[in-house]
Each structure stands twice: as C-alpha cells, then as structure tokens.
C-alpha cells in the first residue's frame, strides 16, 4: 500500500472513531436516584414471600441491567434506602431538591427514580407539583424483590430509562413506568397488594405504554404540573401535618378531634361513597374547621370523583371536595397548598386546577 493510501486509510479510521465518539456523547445523560423499595429488596430465596425492602444499592440496580448502556449514559445516586412505607416529608423535600438541581444542569437530560410501590403514587404526585423542569422525570418500582424468580425490577428499570431518554416524554409531568405501562403521576394508584399488574390510572387512563423501550404516548396531563405549577419547595424546610381519616359505618368522630388536638393543619377524609360521612363526623368536621383546620373530602371508593354539594353542603360546612384525587394524593396537594393558604375557597381552586 502506498503512503498516500495509508494516510487515506488512517483518516478514514479516525473519521469512523470520531463518528462513534460523537454517537457516544449524543446518548442521553440519565441519572438514576434510588430510594429503596422492593425493587431493591432481598429474600432468603427466589420463591419466598417474606423479604426486606431496600437491601440493594443503586450500583447493584444498574449492574443488573447492562442493556441500560445501550440507551443512555447512566450514573446513579443513593438518596435513601427505605421501604416506601417509611417515606417522609423530609425525604420528599430532599428528593425534590436533588431532582431540581440535577435537571437545572445542562449535562443531565432526565432523571429516573426507583421507589417502593406502597407510596409511589404520593411521591410521584408530590414531585409532579414541585419539579421545575420539562425534562423527563420517570419513577419506577417492582412488586417482586430483586432476588425473586421472575423479578420484575430489571425490565422496569430498563423501560423507565428508555422513557426518561425519550424526548417525547418531556413536558408530560412526572411519569411512573411499571409493567410496560406509562402512568401520569396524577390519578394513578396501587390496586393489588401482590399482583405485578397492580397500578391503574382509573379516571383518565394511561399516559402511554412501552415494550422493551419502544414507547407510545396516548395523552398529555390535563392539570397543571411541574413548570406550570405555582407550588414549590423553595424555602420549605418542613411540611404541615395533614391526616387521612378513614370513614366507615358507625365511624367514631373523636378520631377527627384527636387529629386536631395533635396538631393537624389539614384533614383528608376517606369518606364513604361521594365523600360522605355520618352526622357525628360532620359535627367533628365543623369543630375542626372552626379551629382553622382545612378539611378535604375524598373517598375510600377506588374510582369516580367527589363533587361539591352532592349530599354535603360544602358551602355551609366550609369543606373542600377532592375531585378525582384519592385520599393519599389529596393529602399531598393539601400539604403543599397549606404553605400558600388556609382559605377553603382558595384551597378548592387548587383542587380544581392541580
Ligand atoms: N413495601 C414496599 C415498598 O413500598 C413494597 C414495594 O416496593 O413493592 O417499599
């Protein structure tokens, strides 16, 4: 081979390398924030129901799915390692601060958060209200621990990264990707204690679906979220106490009085039917409101909306109707809104808008 051809061949090889490198650097940069949950859980064997959440670290979650490297440049951070039954205001504030900081950086294209399934609907909705970025924020979880036969975590992590790396996911608020479904944060809920197909978005349906990273989107969020939300964690060091109280036939109204006596600034009732409660409960609610506590009527029923003035005169009583928000998500919104107002009419406006 002559010198000229050798130079040409070298240049061709360099060009291929440069293109390959450019291809490398063009991969989306995704940060995985791990918080624990069953997805990081471990059992003594592959077929045991008993296990402990939050045993595996973020490096282990990433190593379990080498295919992630095909989708994105990945790095991980451990924010917490808890069962999500122990999720708290403090971790929410820490997580929101970290996600906002990461997404404000030009070298991060999206964030994936691994979490337990028990309270993922609360964390997702919280972040949906306070993250100030249009970049994808995708949460995922698993019903089976990492050690289980047919663990569902690895594919959920793969799909979550595929959605976080997808420009089409941007601007849809916080998403929860699990079992091939893409849920919007608002309105999704856990429906089975053990079934892998546990999450449903009953009222408005799925935001989309994914199959081995092939994503399809069906809709956009229909309420304010992220950059359009006026709610924020800036300057917040804590959140007010809001209690959820489950109503039943023969309900003991003194539970409402106890919440107020113990410092609740808000109460969400998981009422019967359309947010109903017995006469004793209504009296206790009136006492709570007289002391400045905001009372939101939600329902223990799994779908449908709680409307104003159906069987309870909210105008006369001073209560707020939760609309489509279940008690857990209504509690999240009320905690954030109480930083702005305790006026029931204004609180109602938030529940009609967020
Ligand atoms: N208790 C677990 C948790 O929420 C359940 C799960 O992740 O599936 O952390």
Secondary structure tally: strands: 16
What is the average of the pLDDT values?
A: 94
SSE class: alpha/beta
Unreliable spans: 7-23
- Annotated CATH homologous superfamily of the largest domain: L-asparaginase, N-terminal domain
Q: What is the domain tally?
A: 2
Query: Could you estimate the helical fraction of the residues in percent?
Result: 25-40%
- What is the CATH architecture term of the largest domain? 3-Layer(aba) Sandwich
Relative strand content: 15-25%
User: Would you give the CATH topology of the largest domain?
Assistant: Rossmann fold
Major beta sheet, specifics? 8 strands, mixed
Count of DSSP-assigned helices = 11
The rough form would be described as globular
How far apart the termini lie comes to: 70 Å
The Rg value, from CA coordinates, equals 23 Å
Query: What hetero molecules are bound to the protein chains?
Result: aspartic acid
User: Reading side by side through the largest sheet, how are the strands ordered?
Assistant: 4-1-5-6-7-8-11-12
Give, in order, the helices and strands. Answer: HEEEHHEHEHEHEEEEEEEHEHEHEHH
CATH class of the largest domain: Alpha Beta
Short description:
It contains eleven helices and 16 strands. It is α/β, with parallel strands linked by helices and 354 residues long. An eight-stranded mixed beta sheet has the order 4-1-5-6-7-8-11-12. The protein has a four-stranded parallel beta sheet with strand order 13-14-15-16, with helices on both faces. Strands 2-3 form a two-stranded antiparallel sheet.
